[in-house]
Amino acid sequence: AVWDAVSAREYHKVVHEQAQIAVTGSPWHDRVAASRSGDAAAVDVLFLSQPELSGDSDRIEALLGLVDRLVGYATERDLRFAIREHPRGQGSYLRGTPHERHIAQFSDVNEAIRRSLVVVTNTSSSLYEAAALQTPIVLTDLFDQVNPAYAGYRFIHMIDGVDDLPGVLTELLEGSGHDDRPSLGLHGDSVERIIEISQLTSFERIHL
């Protein structure tokens, strides 16, 4: 049993060809999904920063360039823009730059995502929280670290380069919001699914 559809696809590559893999979701993300609210968003575009990258000047420059594009996009359109620092990024590459003034304080990443219309990040496991909270998230993947299969699932968007970012953001902010792609598998009923599988006999598990 695995959390999500992408993990199931990856495990199918390395397990026995007749193995059955069940997507259960996860209790943690069930709790995240249950925290969705109808409150008005406080942020139009949220950037989730990366962990500290001290010494990696090329990556820092690329990420600062990404934030430059986001700030420019938000400023031109009079949008509310905020940055949520990574928990391991205090004193990060954003400190001491003009972008520091956009750093906002949230109780946790879930609150940050929940209070935003669209989330942008380079790569982050927070794509799971965004999917559970039904908040569109854009992955720029500047360093080719993200499994491209995630792009096939609801609320998750990947771009080929930062030049595509304005168009994707505008579509997400101004479009209908309709997304008919399949769900990642975070359905909100993981405990029931896990219990159901745990009660199956060995024969039944093999023939899920």
Mean pLDDT: 88
- What's the N-to-C terminus distance? 11 Å
Q: Please identify the structural class as seen in this structure.
A: alpha/beta
Main sheet overview: 5 strands, parallel
Number of strands: 5
Question: Low-confidence stretches at least 5 residues in length (pLDDT < 50)?
Answer: none
Read across the widest sheet, the strand sequence of neighbours is 2-1-3-4-5
H/I helix tally: 8
Share of helical residues: 25-40%
Apparent shape: globular
Beta-strand percentage range: 5-15%
Output the radius of gyration. Answer: 19 Å
The arrangement of helices and strands along the chain is: HHEHEHEHEEHHH
Oligomer: single chain
Search tags:
8 helices; five-stranded parallel sheet; globular; alpha/beta; single chain; 208 residues
Entry summary:
With 208 residues, the protein is of the alpha/beta class. It has 8 helices and 5 strands; from the N terminus they run ααβαβαβαββααα.
Q: What can you tell me about this protein's structure?
A:
With 208 residues, the protein is of the alpha/beta class. The chain has 8 helices and 5 strands, in the order H-H-E-H-E-H-E-H-E-E-H-H-H. It has helices spanning 5-12, 27-34, 57-76, 109-114, 127-133, 165-174, 190-198, 202-206, and strands spanning 43-48, 81-84, 116-121, 137-139, 156-158. Strands 2-1-3-4-5 form a 5-stranded parallel sheet, sandwiched between helices. Helix 2 crosses helix 5 (127-133). It starts with a helix and ends with a helix. The mean pLDDT is 88.
